[in-house]
């Protein structure tokens, strides 16, 4: 049915598969190309797929790029054959690059204290919707198993790339529909997913850069609603990460916890 549709929504890999394997798929009449999370689509991880896709598209088209952390790379724009592109930013001249309704804090914690910190946080926010970001699938699986065995005082869910797509959709719907719940997730949940009414985003593992921080924190304080973000840093991570956040115009305050 690909030759009968007017709008196609897909990932780069799946679109390229249809281009290569579906004899009925024809892009010659394409009028508009939209890249959501454009900076991610154009980075090194998708470079080969995107180059192959662009080679199969007509040069005469409208191209729209969307992202909370938009690329201005001349190299990236040239790959897309953009001529005199117009850049529109909702916060280019704003004082901060994150929403005003987002309260942002960080604390410094030793590695061996993280689990106790997380357990205390969950116990004290059992009546709220919390999204916890961890650095790897193994971390997510481990935390999910530990909190289930400890009988956490609220519903616990886990979302990571190792899950089958149907299971990921099930977890997404469950977290969306629940009011009092904690979701442990990798950065698979940092982009492209709209979770309504998230009260807290807890970044238990430090993001790799300020761009990732922005997308993680952006899961709360959406659509003019308020929200809170807490970043947990190791002592060795504090100086470098705070410098990156300052360069990105991200206001964040340090808080202390009782030992």
UniProtKB/TrEMBL annotation:
UniProt domain Helicase ATP-binding: residue ranges? 1-88
Q: Name one GO molecular function term.
A: ATP binding
* InterPro entries cross-referenced by the UniProt entry: DEAD/DEAH_box_helicase_dom (IPR011545), Helicase_ATP-bd (IPR014001), Helicase_C-like (IPR001650), P-loop_NTPase (IPR027417), RNA-helicase_DEAD-box_CS (IPR000629)
Q: Which keywords describe this protein according to UniProt? A: ATP-binding, Helicase, Hydrolase, Nucleotide-binding, RNA-binding
Q: Keyword Hydrolase: yes or no? A: yes
The answer to whether UniProt assigns keyword Nucleotidyltransferase to this entry is: no
Q: Which residues form the Helicase C-terminal domain?
A: 114-259
Q: Which reaction does it catalyse?
A: ATP + H2O = ADP + phosphate + H(+)
UniProt superkingdom: Eukaryota
Stated EC number for the protein is 3.6.4.13
Gene3D superfamilies recorded for this chain?
P-loop containing nucleotide triphosphate hydrolases
Q: What family classification does the UniProt entry report for this protein?
A: Belongs to the DEAD box helicase family.
Q: What is known of its domains?
A: The Q motif is unique to and characteristic of the DEAD box family of RNA helicases and controls ATP binding and hydrolysis.
What is its biological role?
A: RNA helicase.
| Descriptive protein name | ATP-dependent RNA helicase
| Source organism of the structure | Clastoptera arizonana (Arizona spittle bug)
């Amino acid at each position: 049915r690909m030759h009968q549709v007017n709008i196609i929504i897909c990932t780069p890999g799946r679109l390229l598969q249809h281009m290569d394997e579906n004899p009925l798929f024809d892009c010659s009449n394409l009028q508009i190309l939209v890249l959501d999370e454009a900076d991610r689509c154009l980075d090194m991880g998708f470079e080969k797929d995107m180059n192959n896709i662009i080679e199969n598209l007509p040069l005469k088209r409208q191209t729209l790029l969307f992202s909370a952390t938009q690329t201005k790379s001349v190299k990236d724009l040239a790959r897309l054959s953009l001529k005199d592109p117009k850049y529109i930013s909702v916060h280019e001249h704003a004082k901060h690059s994150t929403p005003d309704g987002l309260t942002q804090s960080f604390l410094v914690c030793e590695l061996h204290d993280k689990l106790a910190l997380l357990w205390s946080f969950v116990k004290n926010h059992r009546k709220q919707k919390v999204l916890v970001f961890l650095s790897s699938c193994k971390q997510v699986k481990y935390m999910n198993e530990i909190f289930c065995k400890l009988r956490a005082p609220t519903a616990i869910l886990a979302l990571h790339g190792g899950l089958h797509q149907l299971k990921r959709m099930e977890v997404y719907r469950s977290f969306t529909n629940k009011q009092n719940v904690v979701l442990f997730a990798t950065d698979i949940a940092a982009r492209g997913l709209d979770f309504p009414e998230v009260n807290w985003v807890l970044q238990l593992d430090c993001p790799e850069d300020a761009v990732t921080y922005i997308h993680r924190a952006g899961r709360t304080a959406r659509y003019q609603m308020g929200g809170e973000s807490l970043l947990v840093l190791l002592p060795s991570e504090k100086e470098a990460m705070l410098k990156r956040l300052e360069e990105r115009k991200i206001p964040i305050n340090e808080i202390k916890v009782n030992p």
